[in-house]
Amino acid sequence: MATPVLDKADAAGRPEPGFADSPYITVTFRVRRFNPEVSAEAVWEDFQLEIDPKERVLDGLHKIKWDLDGTLTFRRSCAHGICGSDAMRINGKNRLACKTLIKDINPEKPITVEPIKGLTVLKDLVVDMEPFFQAYRDVMPFLVTKETNEPTRERLQSAEDRERFDDTTKCILCAACTSSCPVFWNDGQYFGPAAIVNAHRFIFDSRDEAGEQRLEILNDRDGVWRCRTTFNCTDACPRGIEVTKAIQEVKRALITRRY
Amino acid sequence: MSTTETPASGVGPVEGAPVYTVDSPAPLIEAPRKRTKKTPKSTRGNFELAAWLFMRLSGIVLVVLVIGHLLIQLVLDGGVSKIGFAFVAGRWASPFWQVWDLLMLWLAMLHGANGLRTVINDYAERPNSRLWLKALLYTATVFTILLGTLVIFTFDPNIR
Fold it and tell me: How far apart, in Å, are the Cα atoms of B61 and each of A79, A115, B66?
């Protein structure tokens, strides 16, 4: 027995834990299906899967798409919580499918999966993200400086200055926050939490010089003053950004003009 | 246009300039908040800021005014049974209570009206229903404030 083999468990006379009984459980995925080429109505469709509860909702969706119904449509890219493609409404709460474990969301009951709210559904779980990204572009999410020449050396910044906006640099633009906001649901003109978070990231950056301009943009009728501090965005953020706090900081900066 | 490829949205051609040039090898970014005919007009000025701040400040003042009012009217000195024409006439003889009630009237009405304005903004979906609800709200507010102010200043204790 020079090579390690799997029959070690048999040699010991009892099965290795975890091998004897299957870790797989049967889970029902209740997915909101919509295909404009077939019907104008969105319908719930149930899928039964055998899945390890330690797997993620995204793995379940993959199983459905690869083995059960290839027409199921959803976005995903990196599948590791960084690209922000697979935000969806799972059991009524906005989450990333790739960061939600089956065992954490009560697999005994059917797991509902819907597209995020407030944006036009294109097919199944895919929504039109354009209004979301338009609001993002509107706050000028890039470094603006007054000097016209190319810098000859790195723009340095102290650790404290960097710390000031550290929280809001974590945003992955998944739209979980914006599409959990009741104000955004009703009025897509509202900038939404994600755009304000990304404005915050530059307003409080000591290297940036367009803070005043960004504050003026967010002082608009559809800017930060429409926030009702319901904290849905903070609850929804898969990156744990304190979104509502960032919005409040922008409000305070607008009133005191200090940032 | 010197390039023929269609740029992705958001990385559109800036008017008159090609997407890529020798000087800017990266695609030019379209001017932010580009206005189209469908874009709602942006609101200049600080009205929303002022309204937001007013809600907080008037709220704080109203806590004192309203709790004081309720204590005097309903709890202290015999409670609600003491209230009558004479009681009101006696209080409004003093300018202090006149100012107290006037302040409470104005702040409460404006606070409530502004709150309802935001509720209408949040919940009324069609522009027409917004318009009519707000028209009704503003009319009721102005009427109540003016009538209340008139009564406080022209109250006649000797009316028969």
Answer: 52, 44, 9
Domain that holds residue A79: 25-127
Give the tens place of pLDDT for each residue, A86-128. Answer: 999 999 999 999 999 999 999 999 999 999 999 999 999 999 9
**pLDDT tens, residue by residue, B21-70:** 666 555 554 544 455 555 555 556 788 899 999 999 999 999 999 999 99
Residue in B closest to A191 by C-alpha? B33
Contact B40 A222 (CB under 8 A): yes
Rounded to whole angstroms, how far apart are CA atoms A113 and A94? 10
**What is the signed CA dihedral for A197, A199, A204, A207, rounded to 10 degrees?**
130
Structural domain range at position B75: 47-154
Residue A139 lies in a domain: yes
Chain B residue with the nearest C-alpha to that of A185? B122
pTM check: above 0.90: no
- CA angle at A129 for the pair A128 and A131, rounded to the nearest 5°: 100
Q: What is the pLDDT of residues A204-239, one digit of tens each?
A: 999 999 999 999 999 988 899 999 999 999 999 999
Same domain, A31 and A75: yes
Report the 10 Å Cβ neighbour count for A254: 22
The two three-digit tokens of residue A3, written as one number? 């090579």
Looking at the DSSP bridge assignments, the partners of residue A67 are none
Angle at A151 (CA atoms; ends B28, A196), nearest 5 degrees: 55
Any CB–CB contact under 8 A between B42 and chain A? Answer: yes
Do A162 and A230 lie in one domain? The reply is yes
DSSP string, A133-186: HHHHHHT--S---S--SPPSS-----HHHHHHTTGGGG-----TTGGG-HHHHH
CATH of the domain at B115: 1.20.1300.10
For residues A112 and A193, state if they share a domain. no
> The domain spanning residue A180 has which CATH number?
1.10.1060.10
Indicate whether A162 and A65 sit together in one domain: no
Amino acid letter, residue B55: M
Residue B31 contacts A where some CB pair is shorter than 8 Å = no
> A20 lies in a domain?
no
Q: What is the pLDDT of residues A7-41, one digit of tens each?
A: 544 444 454 555 557 889 999 999 999 999 998 89
B23 at interface of A, judged by CB pairs closer than 8 A? no
